[in-house]
Design brief:
single chain, 196 residues, alpha/beta, 7 helices, globular
Length: 196
Amino acid sequence: MIKLVNYNLKNSFSRHMGAKFPPSFPNEMLVKILSSNFYSNIKKNFFNKRIKILEVGSSSGNNLRFFLEKKYIPYGIEINKEMVDLGKKNLLRLGYKIPKILIGNICNTPFKNNSFDCLVSINTIHYNFGEDILLALKEFKRVLKKNSVVIIETSGPEHFNRAQSKKIIGNLDYVSNNKKLLINVSELRKKLLKLN
């Protein structure tokens, strides 16, 4: 885990490409899902109210910024203090009030049962594998209210996590830095169905 922690802090944005600041704009697909009926069949009136929303892996706060602008009540978690501080500093730099961003991980969030109307996990779930993905999904279910919304985006074949991995068996197992990765939509669907 320490190697991943250092990696996240060191490479949280593309300094080698000339970026001076961490990402400040929200994820494009998230904006489409929360703003347009064309991209999502989620009832528009669900997101037209003041909802409590948790972002798992809030990074630089770029999506929390979007939630603040939409007048939601945002919360974030990150895996270490350095990443929490990165998000807080970036939001302050952009002139936003800092929402609650806590240390936590995808399998163990520091929130009570039934706390949120919506949970967003963008490019976080694929850092787990096997039964840890089921644990993460159970944790999502635990902190969400009844009739809530979950938005999960994970890596595709071109993502660096998969591109730098070696296929070891079938269409499911990949190894990166000697850690198995689960990046398969059909398996994720099966695990979601197990939660019912």
